[in-house]
Amino acid sequence: MKLLLIGSGGREHALAWKLAKSEKVEKIFVAPGNGGTAIENKCENINITDIDELIAFAKEEIIDLTIVGPEDPLTKGIVNKFKTEGLKIFGPAENGAMLEGSKSFSKEFMKKYGVKTAEYETFTDVNEALKYLEVCPYPTVVKADGLAAGKGVAICETKEEAIDAVKSYMVDDIFNGAGQKIVIEEFLEGVEASILSITDGKTIIPFISGKDHKQIFDGGKGPNTGGMGVLAPNPYVTGDVMKDFEENIMAKTLTGIREEGFDYKGIIFFGIMITDKGTYLLEYNVRMGDPETQSVLYLMESDLVEVIEAALREELDKTEIKWNNGVCINVVLASKGYPGDFVKGYEITIDEKVKDKVFLAGAKAEDGVLKTNGGRVLSVIGLGKTLEEARKDAYENIKHVTFEGAYCRSDIGTHK
Fold first, then answer.
1. Terminus of the chain with fewer CB atoms < 10 Å: N or C?
2. Exposure of 343 by Cβ count < 10 A (0-12 exposed, 13-18 middle, 19+ buried)?
3. pTM recorded for the entire structure
4. Does residue 192 register a pLDDT over 80?
C-alpha cells in the first residue's frame, strides 16, 4: 500500500512510525512532515498543505489510503472533498469534525444526547459575557469557541482573571476570530484523563488511557502548554471510571453520532475529568492527541493499518485491538522559553545509547542534520513493566538527547 499522512507534529511522526511497521505498507508520503518523518523507515516528506493539491497528489501517486493527523483540515472538510473525488480517507467528515471545531456545537451535542459534562453558557456579546461573570461561581473556565491551537482555554480563579480572558478573546481577538464566540463553563475539580478511541460510526473502541501533563513546570505549575509528557495507561482510570465513561459518555456520544447522521470513520478523543461526583466529559477532539499518541501507539501491538481498514469497512464490532500490558511514558523536551518566546535552529543530537524511540515534533532535517524548529521539539519514550521502570527508562534515555536550551519536566508520571 501507498499511504498519504497529513500533518507535521510529533503525533504524525508516531503515526508514521506505527504505520510503517505494517507489512501491508510499502511507502508513506507525509505532507508536510517534519525532521522525524524525513528519516523514518518507508517515509518521504512532501511539501504540500493545500487540500486541492493534496487531492491531485493522491490521484497522481495512486494513493491507497490517506490518514489525517491534525484537526484543522478535518474541520475544513478534507474528508468530504477526498471522498467526492473517489479517494479513500480516514477521518470524520466536516459535520462530525464540528465536535472539535466549535465548543458551543459540541456542548449542545452533549446536552442533547445526555453526555455527562459541566454546566455552561454560550456568548457572542462581550457585555453579556461580562455581566454573567458577576454572578457565576469561581473558579470558572473560559473557552474560545473555535480552534485555537490548544490554547483557547483559561481556568480563571477570580472574576478579574475571567474578565481579562473574555476581553482578550472577544475584544483583543488574540485567536483571530476563534474567540468571537465563547463558552463559560463550570469548573470541575479532579484528575484529567485522555481516552483516544476509534469509531466507524456504529462502534467505538477505546484505546489505552493516557495522563497528559499540561503545565510547563514540575508540580503542575506555570502556564499551560500543548502537553509536556504523557503516562499510559492512566492509573486514575480504574474499572469503575471506565464503566462510568463507557455508559455515560461513550455510548451516548455514539448514539448522537448515529442520530445526527455524521459520516464518522476516524478517531474520537475524549478529554475527561474524574471527580468525586463521577466522570465528566471536558471536550471532544476528532484526531489523536499530541503527545498522547506517542505513548498510546507505542503500547499498541495490533497493526494500525488493519484497524483503520476495519473502521472504513464498518467492521470494528469484529475487531480486537491488542496492547502491550506494560507502562509507557513520553517526556517532552522543549525549547528554552516555551510556551513564550524561544529560539529555533539548534542542532539536535540523539545518541545511539537511547534504548527506545524518540519522536520528533518541532524539528527539521537540514542537509542530514536535525535542528530545532518549534517549542515542543521532541518526545523521549520510556517503557517498563511498572510505572517506576518506565520513568527510569525515559529519564535515562533523555540523558542521551541534547540540544541547546533543552528543557523538560522531571515529574512526568508522578504528578496528578
1. C
2. exposed
3. 0.94
4. yes
